[in-house]
Each structure stands twice: as C-alpha cells, then as structure tokens.
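Section 3.1 - Work completed
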Amino acid sequence: MTNDLPTTPSGAPAEGAGLPGSSQAVEEAAASFEAGAAALRSFVRECADVDWDAVVPVEKRTVRVMAYHCARGIRLVREWLEPMRKALPVPGEAGEIDAYNAREMDLHEGATRDEVVEILDREVPGVAAFIRSLTAAEMRIVAPFGPGGGREMELSQVARVGARHFEVHLGHIREALAAR
C-alpha cells in the first residue's frame, strides 16, 4: 500500500496532509460531494423508464423517489454546516428526518428526471462552494449534531455526509436493478 499524502523532506507526512482539518481535506470533501452528485445526475439521465419506477427493496421506495430524496437532501448539508461553522449545535433530531423520509414516498412518487436534475443543477454548486469556503480550523469544530441523536460530531464528518448519502442510496438502487 502506498501513501499518497504530501510529505516533508524527511518522508514524514506534511503537517495536516489529508487530515480532517487540512485544506486538502476541505477540497476532498467538496470534490467527493460533487462526484456523488454527478454520479446521481448521470444515473438519472440514463435510467430506463422501466427502472425509474422499480422498487428498491432495502429502501422500500421506488428509484424515482430515491433519486428525488438524494437531490432534496442536498439542502440539509448546508443547513447542518452553517451552525456548526459557528460552533453551534445543529438543530433537529433523528426522528424528524425519519418522519420526513416516511412521508416522502407519497409526496414525491411523481418526481420526474427533469425535476431531479434541476435540483442537482441548482443546489450542488452552492453547497460545494460553501464546503470549499470552510477553513482547516473550521473543519475541526465539534458541535452537537441533533439529527445524529445529539452526539458530538466534527464538522469534517458532516461535510462528508452529502457524498456518503449519494453513495449509499445510489448503491442500493444499482444493487436492486442488477438483481432484477
């Protein structure tokens, strides 16, 4: 296994290289968020009609609803990062998100590919820019994260939530479609 982190002349990792509180980590968080959104956008554009309405068993929702869910979730990333940047607790609780997700199936069963792509095109650039605006010191801020049961989380962890959200749900969608 090779180490691709920047190093000092002695071969030791450069200060902060790849660590959650480094400028490299800020760029990695923003880039992975953009890559996840791009993967979802590409999937939505290429998804066959028959697959768009397929049920994703592990999610108990259709591909259509899952794609919309991922796109709409983008706004939450920024809503969570803004108070954390000021070392304030992130409001909310896990139960609120679970309740919204349960209602979402009925609310968005008619979501179109164009709607999903429009949300991605509108929301992703601003959230990615916001992530890139974070400093290395801000990435190390720890605050209570209400949606995570109030546990203390580092801002760097929350900055990666969007990318992880795309990855997990798109993975479930692809697994379900491959099993058909």
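Second construct:
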Amino acid sequence: MGLLALVVAVQLPYQFGGTVREILYSRAKAVGIPLEIQEVALRFPAVVELKGVGAEFPYNGFSFPFRAENVSLQPHLLRLLMLRGEGSLDFDAYGGRGTFSVSQPFFSNSSKFDATLNQLDLGQHPSSGLFGIKGKLSFSGHSTFTRDSTERTLIEDTSAKLELDHGQYSGGHLIANTFPLPA
C-alpha cells in the first residue's frame, strides 16, 4: 500500500501537469491574454508551481508584458475546515516578489483581497526601460468587497501604500501616446 502511494505521488505531477497548463492557457485566452509557461509541477497538498511564465496584458491599444521566473498557486486547504475559500498567488519577478490573496467565506457575501509587491526593479521591465523609468517598486493593498441582493459588488474598505525607492525618469517620453510626463 505504501509503495502504491509513493508511485502515485511521484506520477501525479507528470500526469496532470499538461492538463493544468491547458486549463491556464484556455482561461487566459478566454480573456484575451497570450500566456506562455515553460514548466508546470504539482506539489503536495495542492500547490501548482509554474516556471518561466510570460503574459501580455492588453490595455488601451498598448500591450503590457509581464514575465515571472516562478509562480505558485495555492488554495489554503485548512481554511476549508472553517468554511472559508481562500487562496494565494506568489511570484518572483524583476528581482522582487509579489503576493496576491483572496478570501471568501462560504456563507457570506463579503470577500477580501490583499496584494503585496516587494522591491520589483522597474529597470528590468521592458516597458519601463523603454520609457526611462527606473527604481524599486513596493506596494501593499487590502480591499473588502460585498455583493448586494442585485449582485452588484460594493467596496466596503480599501487601503493602499505605494513606494518607489531610488525612482528615476529620464523625461520627455509619451506613455502609450496618452500623456507626456514632465522631465
């Protein structure tokens, strides 16, 4: 029995890694985001590890690229015992780290969303480099949302903190032909 469990544990990431990639590709394609993933692995108990992730986020006729060395998607299984759906997405990108987490009690209309970015080097990002923007970006934010009886989402509470360490801008460039920034 123990040998069977070991064989299943070793084979699981190899059997379902392709399926996870296909699901992520189809979800991204459905919202118009081209996605590339170099490697997919599953870890116990329910963590999806992605390596070499790239995406292009379209915005107002401009494509915003994002690349991450490592991405981890993890449902928080112990929270299910408390009847709360909760999960997080962690990533390493541009010399820094980011975390997004969401929490939704099963018998409540209230949801929580948290985001943290730590020391992302804007000079390493291709778009920032084109516009002469440099520095280390840090961000922390928290929001609480509720749904009313008409299924509208209402923001109850939001807080955010943005820091740019050693920020530089060479000036004179137009960002996505929207507005000029002063030098």
